[in-house]
Amino acid sequence: MPSFLAAMILAAGESKRMGKPKQLMPLGRTTILEQTVDNFLDSKVNEVIVVLGHRAEEAKRLIAARPVKLAINPNYQQGMSTSVIAGLSMVDSRAEAVMIALGDQPFIDSQTLNRLIDEFYSYNKGIATPVYRGRRGHPVVFAMRYKGELLRLKGDIGAREIVDRHPDDVLEVAVNCEGICIDIDTADSSSLERNKLK
User: How many whole angstroms separate alpha carbon 66 and alpha carbon 187?
Assistant: First the structure.
């Protein structure tokens, strides 16, 4: 059976540090969420699941025409773990792995995503994380054997806790893409404009 990898984009949060929903912010002629989703649709992933919560109707309108699955997380105020759990409920039963991504990282191009996927399937590791100049970033790929641990996450804790718990099962994939580490929380409009994908 051919490999099947699902991508889950977490875009349900309130962006309290930014003061406005990051995923709805403009980026060139599009928005941060739309660019992020399009990068995944252009990659080798087999399905894209977008988890929405805060201002879900606005976000849904932006991406309604795209071939994605939408998961609505009514518990988004209880933290990122609830979005992971909501997204997992939508993952295709054929999936061997799930790539967990953040909805506010529009500068991760499809080539970088494909490299992460290819390397994941080339090694016998259950977790793959991209690394740029020694810094780990997002997205992270988890083999479906980690589904139980992902479902047990609590509060505003992402899947990094699982990565830290299984250091011997982690594959670090060196990438030439600073976007895996860019923090939109502190980025100003000029830096977003400088970094936007052409």
Answer: 27
Q: Are strands 5-11 and 47-52 parallel, antiparallel or unpaired?
A: parallel
Bridge partners of residue 102, in order along the sequence: 10
- Dig out the tokens for 91 from the structure: 């993952």
Domains in the chain (CATH in brackets) are 5-195 (3.90.550.10)
Tell me the whole-structure pTM to 2 decimals. Answer: 0.90
- Alpha carbon of residue 8 to chain centroid: 6
What are the CA-CA distances from residue 147 to residues 9, 142, 162, 169 (Å)? Answer: 16, 8, 11, 15
pLDDT digits 0-9 by tens, 137-157: 999 999 999 999 999 999 887
Non-local (6+) Cβ contacts of 56 within 8 A are 12, 72
